Amino acid sequence: MPDTAVAGPLFRLPPSPAEDSSLPLLTLYEVSKILGSTLDLEHSLHDVLNVLASYMQMRRGVVTLKDAQRQLEVVAVSGMTLRNAVEGEARYPLAVAQEVVSTAMPMIVPSMAADPRFAAFAAEADGLDDEVQSMICVPIKGGVKPFGSLSIERHRDRGTRFKFEHDVRFLTMVATLIAQTVSLERRVVGDRDRLIEEKARLEKALPKREKPLKGTILENVVGRSSAMMKISAQVRQIAPSRATVLLRGESGTGKELIAQAIHYLSPRSDKPFIKVNCAALPETLLESELFGHEKGAFTGATTERKGRFEMASGGTLFLDEIGEITVHFQAKLLRVLQEGEFERVGGGKTIKVDVRLVAATNKDLEDAVTRGEFRADLYYRINVVPIFLPALRERREDVPLLAQFFLTKFNEENGRSLRFSEGALTAMGGCNFPGNVRELENCVCRAATLAQDEVIQELGLSCHNDKCLSASLWQRRGSGRAIGGLAPVTEQNDPDTTSVAWEGDLRPAAPARAGTPPGRGYAGPGESADSPSSPSAPPPAAAPAAEDGEDESDAGQRERIVHAMEKAGWVQAKAARLLGMTPRQIGYALKKHDIPLKRM
Question: If exposure means fewest CB atoms within 10 Å of the residue's CB, which of 210, 342, 490, 535 is most exposed?
Answer without folding.
Answer: 210
